[in-house]
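Appendix C: a fully annotated inverse folding record. The material below is reproduced so that readers can follow the format used throughout the book. The structure is listed first as tokens, followed by the designed sequence.
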């Protein structure tokens, strides 16, 4: 059975074409998270976008019964290779267990977007027992 986290569960307006995450067979599959701030605006700074995107991902993981410690694989998109060092500095504060990761330089449709992150995680063992 597949369950989905909704934008309403996160108290956020989101893209009606997708769910923030789907949970199936003890795995969490997230959609990509962008670095918008609390007002829904895109900061100019790569660092702010990275922090916001990762914290948004954390909210999705929590709503899905998971956490950063349960992440198996991360897929990170950056708009320019020059952002990677700055992104890594922030990333390493959240992903202390160093899950598998791919980092891809892409051309985002929105030129203000610099970072997007998604992941696959396990449902936390504690959450699975509840």
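Designed amino acids, in order:
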């Amino acid at each position: 059975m597949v369950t989905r986290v909704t934008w309403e569960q996160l108290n956020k307006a989101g893209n009606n074409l997708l769910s923030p995450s789907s949970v199936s067979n003890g795995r969490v599959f997230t959609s990509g998270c962008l670095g918008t701030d609390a007002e829904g605006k895109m900061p100019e700074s790569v660092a702010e976008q990275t922090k916001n995107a990762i914290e948004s991902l954390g909210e999705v993981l929590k709503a899905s019964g998971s956490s950063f410690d349960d992440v198996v694989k991360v897929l990170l998109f950056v708009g320019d290779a020059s952002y990677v060092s700055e992104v890594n500095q922030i990333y390493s504060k959240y992903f202390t267990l160093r899950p598998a990761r791919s980092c891809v330089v892409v051309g985002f449709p929105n030129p203000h977007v610099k970072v997007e992150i998604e992941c696959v995680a396990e449902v936390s063992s504690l959450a699975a027992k509840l």
